[in-house]
Amino acid sequence: MTTWRCSFAIVTVLLTVMIAAPHMAAQVPGGATKPSMTAKLIDAEKKAAARAATVEVTTVGVELVDPALSMEKPVSGQGHLHYQLDKGPIIATPSAKLSFHELTPGPHTIIVMLAGNDHKPLGPQEALNVTIPKAMTTVATPAAAAPEKKSGY
Known about the structure:
The chain is 18% helix and 36% strand. By secondary structure, the protein is α+β, with helices and mostly antiparallel strands.
């Protein structure tokens, strides 16, 4: 092999490795992409002031589907989300956006977990924290003092 061809081959291999390396890190045996997710609160302060919280989730390597479609049998590349507010009941849904309303004042934790169609964890889980402010108390004041009606006496 000539020096030029050898150099070209080395550069080609290096470029291939550099391009493929970020994608290889997310691979699991068998060539499937390892599922991952990120969860965030949307407009956290504004929603908290309204006694609410909205979570938005982004997933990679898994299609969010209703587990009933597979009769709750695991299917590679499919899953759904489990949301749980303060150790309450788990909400299983394929929805990547979910809102909680009428939250009580104080701190709350929302757990979001990626689950397979059989409801078993697929690994990723995140905890989001939100604090609902105490209700503002308003002092009742008389309506803008209506002008007194004077009698004509």
